[in-house]
Each structure stands twice: as structure tokens, then as C-alpha cells.
Amino acid sequence: MGSVGRVQQVGGALVIVAAMVGLNSLGNHGPQPLRVDHTKAWSYVRTPHSTASGLERRLGEIASFVARRPVQVRCEDFFEGKLVEPGGVVQFNGERPADFARLRPDVCSALVHFARAPGGAYACVVAATCGPDTLRSAGALTVLAHESVHLRGLRDEAVVQCYAMQQVPAVARLFGASTEDGRALAALEYAVAYPHMPSAYRSAACHLGGSLDVSGNGGWLR
Ligand SMILES: [Zn+2]
Hints:
Layout: H1 8-26, H2 34-45, H3 54-67, E1 72-75, E2 88-89, E3 92-93, E4 96-97, E5 100-103, H4 105-116, H5 121-127, H6 132-150, H7 157-174, H8 179-193
Parallel strand pairs: 1-5
Antiparallel strand pairs: 2-5, 3-4
Zinc ion binds next to helix 6 and helix 7.
């Protein structure tokens, strides 16, 4: 999920950094505008710098399906001293997303676990017996879907999260789940996890028939 923080402290830190750059520039008459450094930084961060593992290649294929363009996924820690959304991150340069998403290692582990046994969600929802493993699967699938929607170029977290939950059935099917189980996982995420997300990730329009309902049949809600 993700992108750069929207937290007051981050803004404060940026102000301090800008002031320091301003002071340094007083004694620097060289011809290196900051924009050049920024462009180099972006060209460096927009693509991954590690070879994809087998799992990462598979996740990249699924992310590309959701993102509607070729993208990659890497499983790695991404904490860089600033707050980012839990689970994953996609870097943006203005409105332009990078060409890959990073997922937290525990999210990748949950996806591996799900891929090995992608069935059972529908049955446990019907019987009201879903345990932590099923909820973890629903959450991990939603994180993958969320970052993949970011990779389309969408930044608004509430819109991205709503679209992501609607992608969960398709993403689950790509891992081998049935249509019923995929929908059950989306419904679990919507009913159990979504109400507890930070307000920036929720929208009053994210419901059956709401303006963010793009699934066509509301199957993700049931
Ligand atoms: Zn996000």
C-alpha cells in the first residue's frame, strides 16, 4: 500500500531539510540544479535492483494483471525511517508510479501459504469458523491487489483500497482459488479488516452500488 507519508512530522522534516539545502546553496555557485539529482534518484528507484526469485516472478505476473501493464514485485523490508502504509509500498514521482512494488516479507510468506492451500474460505465463511490463517490470506491478497492498483497510477488511498478489495477474487483465482473462495476472501476483508483501517483508506462510497463499486455485480461484498 502506499507511498510517501502524509504525516505532519514528515512535512516538518522536509521543511528542515529544505532550509539546510538553502543554507548550503549560499556558498555553492556550481551548475548542478537539484532537479538533476532528483531525476537520477527517480530513474534509480523506479525499477528493482535485485533479480526476481521464483516467487517474485509469480507475484509480478499477478501484479501485472491487476496493474494492466508489466510490473514487478519484490519481497523485502522497506522501512526507511518514514511512515509508510502497512504491507507494501509503491514509490511515486508526482503522478507517475514506479514499475515495481515492494511487499513486506510476512505478506509474501502469507501469499506462499495461501498458494499452497487456496481453498476453504467459502466454507468457513458459511460456517462462521474462519480462523487467523484465512484472515491473513485475505489481508495479504488485498495488500498485493492494493499495491498493484497503485501501479496503475492511482494514488488516492481510499479509492485504491476499494478497488483492491474488488480485485481480490481475481487475484485469488490466479493463485488457484475457486471463484467462491475468492469472493469469500474479499467479503472477509471488507467485513472484518476494512472497518478498522485508517480513515484515509476508507470511503463512504465503497459499498454495493456506491460510486467506487466497479465490480459490476457486488460479488466482492458477499
Ligand atoms: Zn496505498
